[in-house]
Amino acid sequence: MSAIELCSRIASKFPNVELSSSQILRTNNVRDLIRTISRKSHSTSHSTTPTPSCTEKSFPMSSLQQGMVFQRRMSSDAEEMFLESMVWTADNEIDEKRLSKAWSRVVRRIPSLRTEFDEITLTQRVMSAITTTEIVRNEENDVEKFVQHDRRKGLSLSHAPLARLSLLKDRQRLVLLIHHLICDAWSIRLIMETLSEEYNNNDDCGVSLPRFQVPSRIMDKDIHFWSDRLASFRTQSKVARCDEPKLDLRSHEIIRETRVENVDFLNKIRRFASSIDVTLASLIHTAFYITYSELCEQEDVVYGYTMSGRSHGKLDRVVGPVLNTAPMCLRFPSTTPFEDAARAVHHSMQAQIEHETLPLIEIQRLSKIKDSPLFSVILDFQPSAWDFSLKGTKLVQTKLLELIGTPLWFRFVVQSDGTSLFRHT
């Protein structure tokens, strides 16, 4: 706790210097700490500083955002924690000037891209205007090397935007670095759609997207629902006969991919899902449950899965950390027919949508699993690919890089060409 307090005091005295508590704990003495602060202060003194601008709106961070800030302070990889890097490859050269103008207009239209954070007061403020919105033109063509360098540079929480768009030397690859404090996966799609719109029109479209708002108070009905769901689950699900993995977050930057090229395979799964009145997501979850329960050698398992958080209200156009991670608590006898299990999973997922806004940290408090997180495995289902075009130039996402704090993470993606893709740590 002393290290965290020292972090806050350093941040208040040196706004451009970012140090995590783990970095402070690794410092041998006060002299080394002073040298570190001096070095970081000097390296940031030559960077572009946004001109002072008016605050449009100020409000507290959500519980999810506060959790990110806390984990970031405690991590040895603070600069890269909760950063997502995406590479988009175009089939033709991208007009750099046109792209730069489009990106500036995107920042003006999306309040989250104009949001800055105060780690001491745990507040966020939406700026009415910012000036540092230019794209980064880079002479590097080695995308792996550039992404690693881009991530090491990081993003300052106190200076918007918490996103950086870079164009590589070949003018055919875009790299978007963005912080999860201001967005989730759904939001990234909205940002890229807006960029495509601005680039294609080459004119200010003028319509701003809705501002992210901190979720309203916790509802009793949500507490009762999740309390009932978790009542009989008392231990974290773990793979049997396996040594406890030593979690090295840096190893989780590498997202491995398995592509299923057979289009007929996915079509058959869709038809089967339709024949038993369930969704494709329900089938994927059922298959995942069966596999995971066998590995855990138990019928009752808990794993995490992502929920859009946008099923209620007009949130489909909101850019912000709205997405929530919730526990999937399932229990079926091994003799249960697959179709019956799939229908039960489908109904369970439908019921949980009504209570998707309760933050995971609150759900954890309701759990009887007190000595560890609710789950160590996450399944993420992405029902459609996110490909875009810039004035006839098609953009396809070709790389994803994240620093993830969960030992096992799986994502099932349906591609635009009908193939399917498994991404996993």
Please provide a written account of the structure:
The protein has 425 residues and is α+β, with helices and mostly antiparallel strands. The chain has twelve helices and 15 strands. The strands form three sheets. It has a six-stranded mixed β-sheet with strand order 5-6-7-2-13-12, sandwiched between helices. A six-stranded mixed β-sheet has the order 8-15-14-11-9-10. A hairpin with a 4-residue loop joins strand 3 (115-118) and strand 4. It is globular. The two termini are 31 Å apart. Mean pLDDT is 79; it is low at 44-52 and 243-254.
Summary keywords:
15 strands, 425 residues, alpha+beta, 21% strand, 6-stranded mixed sheet, globular, single chain
Short structural summary:
The chain is an alpha+beta fold and 425 residues long. It is built from 12 helices and 15 strands. The protein has a 6-stranded mixed β-sheet, with helices on both faces.
Number of strands: 15
SSE series: HHHEHEHEEEHEEHHEHHEEHHEEEEE
Query: Separation of termini?
Result: 31 Å
Helix content bin: 25-40%
Shape: globular
Mean pLDDT, to the nearest integer, reads 79
Poorly predicted runs are: 44-52, 243-254
Please, how many helices? 12
Please identify the oligomeric state: single chain
Strand order of the largest sheet: 5-6-7-2-13-12
Largest sheet: 6 strands, mixed
Structural class: alpha+beta
List the helices and strands and how they pair.
Blueprint: H1 2-13, H2 21-25, H3 30-45, E1 55-60, H4 63-74, E2 83-90, H5 96-109, E3 115-118, E4 123-127, E5 136-137, H6 143-153, E6 163-167, E7 173-179, H7 185-201, H8 220-230, E8 256-260, H9 263-275, H10 280-296, E9 300-307, E10 324-331, H11 338-353, H12 360-366, E11 377-382, E12 388-390, E13 393-402, E14 408-414, E15 420-424
Parallel strand pairs: 5-6, 9-11, 11-14
Antiparallel strand pairs: 1-4, 2-7, 2-13, 3-4, 6-7, 8-15, 9-10, 12-13, 14-15
Helix pairs in contact: 5-7, 10-11
